[in-house]
């Protein structure tokens, strides 16, 4: 039996790929969640005393600053303290409450200690903390990474706007486009989804054990607790949900994760298309000094960035789908399935962020082989059959031709046959159509038959 390894991270996100996803850990790790919980507890204390509830007075600015230091300076000492306390309490939010109480004593603020976690259920703290951490992770880390990829796509779309290429509908030669226009399609699709993500709500509840403010009213029946709660939650920079059970219903999370998964699906489509263009020779990969493509075939440069992105988008999509499916349901007023599920939010975003990192790198390590695109076009003159039959039909309608069934005529000429420039020119010369139409068709090549592709890309 082999000896056990030294302690190792089980997840590749915390091991091999740690550097690429580390910024998410500030928000979506257990420590990030606990820091947010401390923030929510501290700001609730300040909100209660600011309203002079239960005979308190607003804290001095210096005391508020010291209190806020509990989360602004949250570090390893607090992480260790909470781990030790949770081992006793078997309750993570209760451990956070005890941490705040302990620090209040240290700060000489014992007089307000009983307002710590006042009238709160754990899910008041958790819903606000998840709203804060997910919002910050999305807005500060994940969305900027996606925007970087979109910016690169826009750059490539404009750079290659005029690069004519053979399209492949159903994998077969089809009406040409330009590489820039095809890349622009992905940027356009992603920007639509980004707008939805940017408009996301991040909802929290703060209404007690079953969402009724019962304990609050027992303590102070004359206070407008729903208004106090709303002002407090919105003051944190998140959105307020007034009508809930013990938990905030997570519908905002379902909506957000579905949008993120949608973006991931578009990115997955992008990775498989770029991979295919590389396979066709349309894009050349720029060699990286010292890198190895194959352990046995020295010539190879493998499209590993796009393959890595593809796999991580699939993992992220599966996790986001599971989050959406699970979080939409809670038995009666509360069950704990969401607690375990939400601990994997960071994993889902981690795989997505890793994919974005690889996509960004991959898009910077390819160059367009315009000669390959032109050579491919030059061996597929039959794609002009669409243009010719359409022009003939217009001539028939205009009374300049009596040709019967132009489509069938071109089908007979081109379907299943290789037709070159000379053969098409001879065919067009013999057509009964007006001279202007004939000259337009004779001037046409696969490389110029791209319609408005360049304009659309730009």
TrEMBL record:
<comment type="pathway">
    <text>Purine metabolism; IMP biosynthesis via de novo pathway; 5-amino-1-(5-phospho-D-ribosyl)imidazole-4-carboxamide from 5-amino-1-(5-phospho-D-ribosyl)imidazole-4-carboxylate: step 2/2.</text>
</comment>
<comment type="pathway">
    <text>Purine metabolism; AMP biosynthesis via de novo pathway; AMP from IMP: step 2/2.</text>
</comment>
<dbReference type="InterPro" id="IPR013539">
    <property type="entry name" value="PurB_C"/>
</dbReference>
<dbReference type="Pfam" id="PF00206">
    <property type="entry name" value="Lyase_1"/>
</dbReference>
<dbReference type="GO" id="GO:0004018">
    <property type="term" value="F:N6-(1,2-dicarboxyethyl)AMP AMP-lyase (fumarate-forming) activity"/>
</dbReference>
<protein>
    <submittedName>
        <fullName>Adenylosuccinate lyase</fullName>
        <ecNumber>4.3.2.2</ecNumber>
    </submittedName>
</protein>
<dbReference type="Pfam" id="PF08328">
    <property type="entry name" value="ASL_C"/>
</dbReference>
<dbReference type="InterPro" id="IPR047136">
    <property type="entry name" value="PurB_bact"/>
</dbReference>
<keyword id="KW-0658">Purine biosynthesis</keyword>
<dbReference type="InterPro" id="IPR024083">
    <property type="entry name" value="Fumarase/histidase_N"/>
</dbReference>
<feature type="domain" description="Adenylosuccinate lyase PurB C-terminal">
    <location>
        <begin position="330"/>
        <end position="450"/>
    </location>
</feature>
<dbReference type="InterPro" id="IPR020557">
    <property type="entry name" value="Fumarate_lyase_CS"/>
</dbReference>
<comment type="function">
    <text>Catalyzes two reactions in de novo purine nucleotide biosynthesis. Catalyzes the breakdown of 5-aminoimidazole- (N-succinylocarboxamide) ribotide (SAICAR or 2-[5-amino-1-(5-phospho-beta-D-ribosyl)imidazole-4-carboxamido]succinate) to 5-aminoimidazole-4-carboxamide ribotide (AICAR or 5-amino-1-(5-phospho-beta-D-ribosyl)imidazole-4-carboxamide) and fumarate, and of adenylosuccinate (ADS or N(6)-(1,2-dicarboxyethyl)-AMP) to adenosine monophosphate (AMP) and fumarate.</text>
</comment>
<dbReference type="InterPro" id="IPR000362">
    <property type="entry name" value="Fumarate_lyase_fam"/>
</dbReference>
<keyword id="KW-0456">Lyase</keyword>
<dbReference type="GO" id="GO:0006188">
    <property type="term" value="P:IMP biosynthetic process"/>
</dbReference>
<dbReference type="InterPro" id="IPR022761">
    <property type="entry name" value="Fumarate_lyase_N"/>
</dbReference>
<dbReference type="InterPro" id="IPR008948">
    <property type="entry name" value="L-Aspartase-like"/>
</dbReference>
<feature type="domain" description="Fumarate lyase N-terminal">
    <location>
        <begin position="60"/>
        <end position="309"/>
    </location>
</feature>
